[in-house]
Amino acid sequence: MQRKLTLGLATALVAALLTMTSSVFAQKSATDDIAKYREMIADGNPSELYEAAGEELWKKPAGPKNATLEKCDLGLGPGVVKGAAAQLPRYFADTDKVQDLESRLMTCMLFLQGRIPQEMIDAPFQRGPKKDMEAIVAYVVTLSKGDKIKVSTNHPKEKEMYDLGKRAFFFQGGPMDFSCASCHAEDGKRIRLQDLPNITAQKGAALGWGYWPAYRVSSGQFWTMQQRLNDCYRQQRFPFPIYGSDVTIALSMYMAKTGNGGTVETPGLKR
Amino acid sequence: MKITHIKKLLTVTGFILATCLMQNTVLAQQKNDPKFNQMMTDSFRAEGIAGLDRIQQDETQKFCSDPVSANSKQGEKMRDKIQKINMAGIKQPSNGKYIGDWKKGEAIAQSGRGATWTDKADVAVGGGCYNCHQIDKKEISYGNIGPSLTGYGKLRGYSQEVITYTWNRINNSKAYNACSNMPRFAHFKLLNEQQIQDVMALLLDPASPVNQ
């Protein structure tokens, strides 16, 4: 209870300070100050609430088969969660597919619990079954915090996914001609005051990939990587990327592989 | 007999030449990849005003989706071609008026809203200018993907040449730089003629704060 209160206070403080910052100070200091607040509440990232709920869901029998997710294989063997998120996306022989964390979790829910993936795909973010997914994701990614990003493209399907992702990154469309590269292919660029990582280079890719999923202070929500990518495409004025679709996995593969060697800082804390 | 042989030979040579030429254009651009196309088709669905037609690329988008070849020596001819196509679509103002109201222009420059799947069709699309440009010095929250536009008219003068160039550039930036990051505001009907006149005023009315 006390912890929740502290977290709530910290969040309110950050939100207030962020608002002040954007109206009072100039460019550089906004970014610096966000870093300061990150430090301030580093012991109390609100993601912890999601993480705790996720751990419970991981161990609780659910679905038509009334089974837990504890035998879920995220790539390091059944039940191994520690370090698993750092090596995703990867190829899985049982589905013959390259999967990111969320599409893999849908497979585990289907295989182990008998839950139909389409229900998860169709659910809006932050609601219904997606809420469970978000909590489970928070739990899984926290157990890779501090690890190095180490994604492989040794399997031909992994290499293929990487190439598709790279191409998708530069694919322009929509009424504004935007691609991911419009904003994320050069160093030192900003939209308004928001710094944009250059995802085509290792450092920027590690910053982008390594800090998501994250708790977003501005929306007061924990966002998975799927939701992050979904909102990128919304702002690109594209049609809606289907949850767990190949384009989202391909882009994840391109980002993660480019960021290899960087540190996993998930769950991150974002504006 | 001999003549028909020569004719045949000529036809065959013609075909080979044509194929070579075609391959040259193909070389300057990314190869079509059915697997990639399938992935794009399968990965998106229409939502609100954002239909699947938005991932049907036009020639400009196709060309600019491969920056390595677009920026190469081989890409030069194609760049010119893309610029000509975009230039040809630009319309000068129907009422002959280039400069509108800079105050309205500032509001358009400030707004980055519109055209997403969460927007209604009748929501006015913003110019989003400050997202990428510094414009009025008093606005400190500006992006830097595009060049700074502070003192735009003061620095360049208010000649018809400057006015026409700026009009064209806002209407369709790709007429000057095939793969410019700037949206084609008139081509995709993001801004109407009057709104463009207002944004023009923000840059080129001597009374605009941009030129103080």
Overview of the structural elements:
- The complex is a heterodimer of chains A (271) and B (212).
- Chain A has 271 residues and is mostly helical.
- Among the domains of chain A are: 1-44; 156-270, Cytochrome Bc1 Complex, Chain D, domain 2 (Orthogonal Bundle), CATH 1.10.760.
- Chain A has helices at residues 2-24, 27-40, 47-59, 101-113, 117-122, 128-142, 156-169, 180-184, 202-210, 225-235, 246-258; strands at residues 90-92, 97-99, 189-191, 194-196, 214-216, 221-223, 240-241, 268-270.
- In chain A, a hairpin with a 4-residue loop joins strand 5 and strand 6.
- In chain A, 49% of the residues are buried.
- With 212 residues, chain B is mainly alpha-helical.
- Chain B folds into 2 domains: 2-88, no CATH class; 102-211, Cytochrome Bc1 Complex, Chain D, domain 2.
- Chain B has 10 helices and 1 strand.
- The model of chain B is unreliable at 16-27 (pLDDT under 50).
- At the A-B interface, helix 7, helix 8, strand 3, strand 7 and helix 11 of A face helix 2, strand 1, helix 3 and helix 7 of B.
Give a short summary of the structure.
Chain A is mainly alpha-helical and about 270 residues long. In chain A, about 50% of the residues lie in helices and about 10% in strands.
Which descriptors would you attach to this protein?
heterodimer, A: about 270 residues, mainly alpha, Cytochrome Bc1 Complex, Chain D, domain 2, three-stranded mixed β-sheet, two-stranded antiparallel sheet, 11 helices, 8 strands, about 50% helix, globular, disordered N terminus, B: about 210 residues, 2 domains, 10 helices, about 0% strand
CATH superfamily of the domain at 156-270 in chain A: Cytochrome c-like domain
Low-confidence stretches of chain B: 16-27
Q: What percentage of residues of chain B falls in helices of 4 or more residues?
A: 40-55%
What is the count of distinct domains of chain B?
2
Give the overall shape of chain B, derived from the CA principal axes.
Answer: globular
State the low-pLDDT regions of chain A, or none: 1-7, 12-27
Q: Name the CATH superfamily classification of the largest domain in chain B.
A: Cytochrome c-like domain
Largest sheet of chain A: 3 strands, mixed
Per CATH, the class of the domain at 156-270 in chain A reads Mainly Alpha
Number of helices of chain A: 11
Biggest β-sheet description of chain B: none
What is the total tally of β strands of chain B?
Answer: 1
| Strand runs of chain A, count | 8
Computed over alpha carbons, the radius of gyration of chain B is: 22 Å
CATH fold topology of the largest domain in chain B: Cytochrome Bc1 Complex, Chain D, domain 2
